[in-house]
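User: Can you predict the 3D structure of LysR family transcriptional regulator? Sequence below.
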Amino acid sequence: MRTEFVAPAASRATFRLPTLSRLPPLTALRAFVVAARHASFSRAAEELHVSTAAIGQQVRILETHLGQPLFSRQRGELLLTDAGSALYPGLADAFETMIGSLSDLMVSHARPQLKVLAEGCFAARWLAPRLGSIVPALGDVELSIESIEGEAVDLTHFDADCAIVATHAQIPGFIHEPLFADTVSAVCTPEFAARHELAGAPTQLRDLGFAMLRGNGLDAAFEWANWLRACRIPLRLSATGPRFSRQTALIEAILSGHGIGLARHSLISEELKNGRLIAPFGSPQPTASRYHLLTSPDRRRLPEVASLLALLREDIRSLEAAA
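Assistant: Sure. Here are the predicted structure tokens for LysR family transcriptional regulator:
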């Protein structure tokens, strides 16, 4: 007996499974998923930043593609049909998977970031000149420096990984990592000192009332009377010059030859080295405040913060050894 296998007759209507080339538009699928999750076209429109009419149009495109309705309205309430209920869970999971895959890829390729707060003058005159050694040592870390102004700044209002500030008191909620102590000196340009014969003769200060430039800070070391007393210079000043609320402006006025002022050594060290500024009399006096790196307990554990702290301390040790 001979057995023959005969192929079944071709059907008049062939059922074709979806393929990537035959999928409905992604915008239509997304509109359906968001509308189904909110049970509202208007809330879906708000989330996707389109009009309600656009959501309705995308849903109709999907319904036309599938050949069956996905939503129905009953007493003004938007409900899923049986087809919509069957379609929603799988599509929602698919979008979550897509979002997760994209997020993982973006995070894996994103550069780690380090945001640092610093007082404006310190950032410009101490931190910025050291970026040439700090940035390469941080590797792929994207460093961002944001300036703050004033000594009594509420650091809790800033979203940063750490802050470098001069403070003499503990700030609640922060870990204080000490960096270095600072001093304050009376400085001016060599030309100003020569013009007013200030070298070794502080008594000439009595005639410089208008040119006795002053800062404005919480540290008493920056008051002329306190500084002169600390230097054991028995001199009473009958008048003093203008007061500057920012060290940046004070230092610029001194560099411009407008007077002699009390400035932080850390902010004028380069000018003292290259001779643009001199300290004609007296001696450096310690400030009450000390520079610290402040960070919250959770961000202290960030490797970027630990690296920055180590780099700063290494640089400071080198400076102190060379002094």
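The two ends are 110 Å apart (CA to CA). Confidence is low (pLDDT under 50) at residues 1-15.
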